Amino acid sequence: MIIPAQSLLATLTFVSLALAHGWIGKVTIGSKSYLGNPPALYSTNPPPSVIRQIADVPPVKDVCSADLTCGTQATPAALQAPAAPGDPISVEWHTLAGAGYWFHDVGPLMVYLASCAGVASCAELDSSETTAAEWFKIDEQGRDGNGIWAQDKLDAGAPASFVLPQTLKSGHYLLRHEIIALHTAQYVGGAEFYVGCVQLNVTGHEEGAPNAKAGELVRIPGAYTPTDSGILIDVYDLLPSDAYPFPGPPVAALVSHAESGGASTSTQGKIRTTLPGVQTTEKPTAAKTTTSVKG
């Protein structure tokens, strides 16, 4: 049987793109690093980790899916990583393709925490319990003053970096790192969500906590809608001076301005979109930049 060239090309393209999707392969907390396991499809009987193992690499496309919480069919990890308020954290996303670097380069990075109160370890919380957890945002990184996305640094092999809040109350937490790839977000359902969770045991004597009355606590899924302005958006129509409207709650007030890696630079300028039915603001007169689209 002879396979048509177009069908073969489409198949190879699909496989290539699938291999370019990834998982949290390493997290460094303070000075100690922990390895994550490849998805269960490629790694059976993995060694103990602090990072929850996902089942496969394709993105989550449905903002109402339970997979949006910690990744596709994520399972509890066996271990917890010790951490302290103010610890620097870096997250490395790995893929099966090429050098193993992250593939996409447009879209935000966001970090959430959820308390695993009432249990001896976050490992005791299964997927149904994590979807019922209350999450608060501690970091969001979009574009810098030149219009370059933080995600683009992952594409070059750099980790995503942020800091645990200096006043974070001690306890067991799930740390959720999220990449939203927006290269096809011009259409409803086009945004791609890549999520991973790390189990922490935060020590110390601080008492900082999110403010539920200020709307800082959300459930995931439940925090986003398919038409949120930061999810349904044509990023290739943005000018460097345009602000990106982060989806979800605001960064919790317990996070200082210096600790939030992207909020200081990514929320400046005018928010603008050309999507039908959405109010627009006047376009600045700066020259428009172009970016290549990756699938």
From TrEMBL:
Keywords: Carbohydrate metabolism, Cellulose degradation, Copper, Disulfide bond, Hydrolase, Metal-binding, Monooxygenase, Oxidoreductase, Polysaccharide degradation, Signal. Residues 257-295 are annotated as: Disordered. It comes from Roridomyces roridus. Its EC number is 1.14.99.56. The lineage of its organism: Eukaryota, Fungi, Dikarya, Basidiomycota, Agaricomycotina. Gene3D superfamilies: 2.70.50.70. It is an enzyme of class 1 (oxidoreductase). This is lytic cellulose monooxygenase (C4-dehydrogenating). Pfam families: AA9. Residues 262-279 have a biased composition (Polar residues). Residues 280-295 have a biased composition (Low complexity). One of its GO terms (biological process) is cellulose catabolic process.
